[in-house]
Amino acid sequence: MEWVNAVVQGVLLGGLYALLATGLSLSFGVMRLVNLAHGDLGMLAAYLSLVSVSMVGIGPLESLVVVVPAVMILGYVLQRGLLNFTLRGGVLPPLLVTFGLAVIIQNALLTMFSADSQGLDAGPIETASLAITDQIAVGWLPLLTLAVAVGILVALQLVLSRTGLGRALRAASDDGEAARMVGINNRHIYAVAMAIALGTVAIGGIFLGIRTTFGPADGPARLIFAFESVIIGGLGSLWGTLVGGIILGISQTVGGQISPAYQLLAGHLVFLVILLLRPTGLFALPGAREA
Amino acid sequence: MSLLEVANASAFYGDFQALFDLSLVVDEGETVAIIGANGAGKSTLLRVIAGLHPLRAGMLAYDGLPISQLAAHRRVLGGICLVPEGRRIFPSLSVDENLQVGAHVGRRGAWNLASVKALFPMLAKMARRSAAVLSGGEQQALAIGRALMANPRLLLLDEVSLGLAPIVVGQLYAAMPQIRAAGMTTLLVEQNTNQALAAADRVYCLLEGRVTLTGRPTDLARSQITAAYFGF
Fold first, then answer.
1. Are strands B4-13 and B16-26 parallel, antiparallel or unpaired?
2. Is the CB of residue A15 less than 8 Å from the CB of residue A177?
3. Within a domain: residue A145?
């Protein structure tokens, strides 16, 4: 029963990883941009939530209404004003620029909030749980996190497959220059994609901040889990990202069940095994370009 | 007044000059063909007009207004649409979606999903299929249809016949009268000289980035064209 419990908790943890990874998958899928500051932008959102909690007195979940739009605007401006200019020179310039951005965000957070661990207090929902059997109970917060992750993925999938914006995003992803030929303003479309990407990681960052404590330098560690989720699932596949997050989550909780010391190691090992067996990930789209 | 006027245009790829002081006009409603050998600068000229390649020197006017500083997507909004060399359809989109994305800028006009499919019946049968599985001819029809969906005023066609069987080329060019019927102005690039001469009101022959001959197909002798084409 303990093992079943570990798997159940792993699935729920996977929801959080999927939230953190979706934006990474989207920005890679649309712009071929690997955003090394993705994790730090999630942490920035957690700190913004902390600020709005202490200043306005709302709960962290309510702060989503303020923080997510703010981070989305930041994403639009960041892409339009900075990252678009890095896309012309191949894969290296975006890596360097976003790496620099990560360092800047970490140090800005350190200066403003000190190195102390912080936590977001969402009240009773943090510890409330739903008993499924005598031995298995699922927390409402992880359940909510997973539900939000699935909801976001469904919404994103619908936008991509059913709307003009989605068509434009996919067209720009297929062939940026051909997209300009049909009148798509790539710079705007990329900025919209980054706004959506950062909106999702803002939600992920806040849920993470409610779940555990966080510090200014936590971004890169979160980025690794997000990367692993994306790679396991297959680059550019949104549902793959959810499955990747869940596989990573289960690996970690089952590993932790064997011995707490194995929790992170098990996740990384499963990731490496999948990378070895299926380098393109489990759900790589046919014809998806190699990274 | 000409719909499109290119005056003394020069364009470069790095240090390599592709267009030399090139001038060309296209009047409203005309079909003008640009012929010339590989590397003559035909595609570059179309890319410059579409805003995909920078003009180093010279002037580019559309409908009387200078457009050389205008971004490519804004030129589409103004009605300049390019059917690019190599078709460049969107492989992850279905046939219908490729056509719908062609209407992204929302220009009004006679062309829509129904009329484009009536023009190219082969696309109607494939509506929901991925554009990646189409044959070369179907992809070319889709690329032309995608451009028509924007209801262009100036249609730029780059090497429609490239890599296609003669019978397929014939089918595609059979659509030209219908495209012209609504008064569409067309500037087309062709390596297939006979096809170009048959379709066009006027031709320009390019050689190494310069215009070597221009005139109406009926006024030009074979020997003149051959000389201008090869530079003999």
1. antiparallel
2. no
3. no
Who's near B222: CB < 8 A, 6+ residues apart?
none
A237: chain B residues, CB-CB within 8 Å = none
Question: Are the beta carbons of B32 and B154 closer than 8 angstroms?
Answer: no
DSSP secondary-structure letter at A131?
Answer: E
Count the domains in chain A. Answer: 1
Note whether A163 contacts B: Cβ–Cβ < 8 A. no
**pLDDT digits over B49-77, tens only?**
999 999 999 999 999 999 999 999 999 99
Count of structural domains within chain B: 1
Q: Compute CA distances A8 → A139, A248, A250, A254, whole Å.
A: 11, 13, 8, 10
Q: Is residue A64 domain-resident?
A: yes
In A241-260, the residues whose Cβ lies within 8 Å of chain B are: none
In this structure, are residues A223 and A43 in contact, taking their beta carbons and an 8 Å threshold? no
A179 contacts on B by Cβ (under 8 Å) = 90, 101
Structural domain of B54: 4-230
Instruction: Report yes or no on A128 lying in a domain.
Output: no
A32 touches chain B (CB under 8 A): no
**A142 belongs to a structural domain:** no
Q: What is the C-alpha end-to-end distance of chain B, expressed in Å?
A: 34
Question: Which residues, 6 or more positions from A99, have their beta carbon under 8 angstroms from its beta carbon?
Answer: A36, A37
Q: Write down the ipTM of this complex.
A: 0.92
Distance CA A153, CA A155 (A): 5
Task: Find out whether A60 and A68 touch, Cβ atoms under 8 Å.
Answer: no
Q: What CATH code is carried by the domain that includes residue B48?
A: 3.40.50.300
Q: What share of chain B is helix, strand, coil (3-state, %, to 5)?
A: 35, 30, 35
Q: Tokens for A93?
A: 């310039």
Question: What is the tens place of the pLDDT at every residue in A67-91?
Answer: 999 999 999 999 999 999 999 888 8
Of the CA atoms within 13 Å of residue A145, those in its CB half-sphere come to 34
Interatomic CA distance for residues A279 and A232, integer angstroms: 8
Q: Report residue B141: phi and psi, to 5°.
A: -60, -40
Residues B90-117: tens digit of each pLDDT: 999 999 999 999 999 989 999 999 999 9
Alpha helices in chain A (DSSP H): 2-31, 38-56, 60-81, 92-113, 140-162, 164-174, 176-181, 186-211, 219-233, 238-258, 263-277
Q: Which domain holds residue A273?
A: 2-115+164-277
Choosing among A181, A185, A187, A237, which should be mutated to test the B contact, i.e. which has the most B CBs within 10 A? A181
The closest of B222, B217, B219 to B30, measured between CA atoms, is B217
Q: Chain A residues with CB inside 8 Å of B95's CB?
A: none
d(CA B45, CA B209): 9
Whole-prediction pTM: 0.91
Distance between CA A196 and CA A68 in Å, rounded?
A: 10
DSSP B65: E
Q: Among A51-65, A120-134, A177-191, where is mean pLDDT lowest?
A: A120-134
